[in-house]
């Protein structure tokens, strides 16, 4: 469904708060889900600390935006704010494509799922083969058992890659004629194998899905999942096998195709 811009305009919710209360207020606003049947997929909250100090929260449903949309969204917001601050209307350069154009292009490109010769049917068959007998979960020597139901609570472990190591990784990528991303993903797969996860290591990653520069400034959901799931004949001694065996990234495949292609049961114990 495509709504007129005036109808789809989100309501600006304004609330007074203090600096001490701000983190809790932001968390509460960001945690509230969307009801797409009655509201647009963009929510805007303005928290007023003082007349000169305010915090704006933009909450975008994933159906309307992805990671690659954040840059254009921030630039448009900054342009509009600067213009309105001077009492002017913002001037935006018309985009070569609208999101509706992208969706129609994708439908025309992928074709009909009922047509066995269509690109989307061939991709479905490909991923069904690649993801056949996918393990429900990787068995790792962890020190905490999985909960009965995923709590979606976790943490982030930050680490740095030294410049010298980064240079060596780049050299390896050039030697193997692949990207640095593939080297790091191959290293992760080899590490999981050595930790006892077996040799069938499916690793999923999101990719932008923006295969044309005309989509660079577009705000919308175009990202798609990509799964690397090679199965070596034996435990590899290094990451080189994984790099060489990675499947190519081709036409963006809708996420529902990848999910429905997986033959394993999805469990509520370990999230998505």
The biggest beta sheet is recorded as: 3 strands, mixed
Shape descriptor: globular
Low-confidence stretches: 233-239, 247-251
Our count of helices gives 9
Instruction: Please provide the ordered H/E string of secondary-structure elements.
Output: HEHEEHHHHHEEHH
For the record, what is the CATH homologous superfamily label of the largest domain?
Nonribosomal peptide synthetase, condensation domain
Which structural class matches the secondary elements? Answer: alpha+beta
Assign the CATH architecture of the largest domain: 2-Layer Sandwich
Largest beta sheet: what is the strand line-up? 1-2-3
Mean pLDDT: 80
- The portion of residues assigned to helices is 25-40%
Domains, number: 2
Q: Give the beta-strand count.
A: 5
Write a concise synopsis of the structure shown.
This protein has 9 helices and 5 strands.
């Amino acid at each position: 469904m495509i709504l007129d811009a005036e109808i789809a305009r989100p309501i600006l919710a304004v609330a007074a708060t203090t600096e001490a209360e701000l983190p809790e207020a932001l968390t509460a606003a960001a945690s509230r889900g969307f009801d797409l049947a009655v509201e647009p997929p963009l929510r805007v909250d303005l928290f007023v600390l003082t007349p000169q100090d305010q915090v704006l929260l933009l909450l975008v449903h994933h159906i309307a935006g992805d990671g690659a949309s954040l840059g254009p969204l921030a630039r448009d917001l900054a342009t509009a704010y600067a213009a309105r601050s001077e009492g002017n209307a913002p001037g935006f350069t018309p985009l070569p494509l609208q999101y509706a154009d992208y969706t129609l292009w994708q439908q025309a490109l992928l074709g009909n799922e009922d047509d066995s010769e269509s690109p989307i049917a061939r991709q479905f068959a490909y991923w069904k083969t690649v993801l056949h007998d996918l393990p429900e979960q990787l068995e790792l020597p962890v020190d905490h058992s999985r909960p009965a139901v995923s709590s979606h609570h976790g943490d982030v472990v930050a680490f740095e890659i030294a410049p010298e190591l980064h240079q060596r990784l780049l050299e390896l990528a050039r030697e193997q004629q692949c990207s640095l991303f593939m080297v790091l993903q191959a290293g992760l797969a080899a590490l999981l194998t050595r930790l006892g996860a077996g040799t069938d290591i499916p690793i999923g990653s999101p990719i932008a899905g923006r295969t044309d520069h005309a989509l660079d400034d577009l705000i919308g959901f175009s990202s798609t999942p990509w799964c690397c799931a090679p199965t070596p004949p034996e435990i590899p001694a290094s990451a080189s096998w994984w790099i060489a065996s990675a499947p190519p990234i081709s036409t963006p495949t809708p996420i529902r195709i990848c999910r429905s292609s997986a033959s394993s049961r999805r469990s509520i114990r370990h999230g998505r």
